Structure prediction request, 424 residues.
Amino acid sequence: MNRIIIIGNGFDLAHGLATRYEDFINWYWEKWFYILRVCHKKSETDGLCTFTLKETEGTWHSSLWERISIINPPKGFEVVNWILDNNQSFEVIQSHLLFAINKAIKDRKWVDIENEYYQLLKQSITTPDKIGVTPEMINEQLRKIQSLLIEYLLSFNGADIKIIPDILKYIYEPINADDVSISGMQYFREHCTKWAGLGDREWFEFIDRYGINNGFSSIDVQQFKEKHTCKMIDGSTFIYDFNAFPKYLIRPESIMLLSFNYTLLTNMYTKTGIGYSNYIHGELSEQDKIIFGYGDELDDDYKDILKCNNNEYLRNIKSVKYMETNNYRNMLAFIESAPYQIYIMGHSCGNSDRTLLNTLFEHKNCVSIKPFYYKKEDGTDNYFDIIQNINRNFTNMKLMRDRVVNKTLCIPLPQISLNANDNE
Prediction:
């Protein structure tokens, strides 16, 4: 039995990295602050946004830009809101995608850029005259945002990031039988039976890979075999009592850290011979292979996109972009190779990755889905938000109820702030 760790942006946030889309957009507006305060032209643009000084009686004054410097210290959204409020002196024209992103942040205090992109793409089909934007224009705007996002994330290179010991422990922890779905219990029993049939040498090779150091010896295995197992005529091992199996030895054979992030933080948690990283959307070290777009083939409107005789509509659809690397194929090979658990660490399971998550969640080899939720300072948490999103990634609700681990068995994802003593 294997394990997949689905790693999302919350994983980076747990380590103290400000990688929310809101953080990125705030950084973007702060860049404009430094550009405009020294500007000596009437207009400045970057292809996403254009700032222009309005003429007064046929003239304009570059000194007006200097008024922006009164905002100190600069906060990105404060800068742009101050300019928008001074519409007698300034004019701001935002691209369609940037406008949608900022509106989402203003209305909801958060944004999923990939979802805003997809919604705008659909509107260009249903109401092209109303929104006045083509898929080519939307894709170019997304390309510019992707380039800026890469620049922003690269700024974290060299940051002093340390492993959170509790996260490392949970990634490589034993398999808990209570986490396994009812339909997957046979796989769990087969997993225990396989290990019970191993010889002493194989046992020690196994615990050496895991680095298990809690007084384990071959006597433990021998006593277990003598008391709780027997050899069948066909040479297989039969276990009388699975509850008697040494629980700390029931470990996954292999662990894939399936990262949806672009930062290389996931690599810090790999272990030779057991756990390895798969950056399903690419990584900053290979910028030309980064996947940034949308992936929801289960959406009813997706069929309308396919009907359009314009490949621009498919340019940034993730299921198409997955064909450019081996990452998706490697993931498929992993889930086909053996039954597997899923741990969710920092991924919201939103619709922008719905196609891929549906493949993982409803696969015949999936035995459980365990979310590590975020606990807020006021004591509330987002467990049910994650569950509701997981629900949308299923087409078989009976399967969902069997595989998703209930809250009593789930825990919050450890945060760097809660592990200060371990990281000094």
Remarks:
- The mean pLDDT is 87.
- The chain has three domains: 2-18+159-169+252-282+325-423, 22-154, 173-249.
- Residues 135-154 form the longest helix (20 residues).
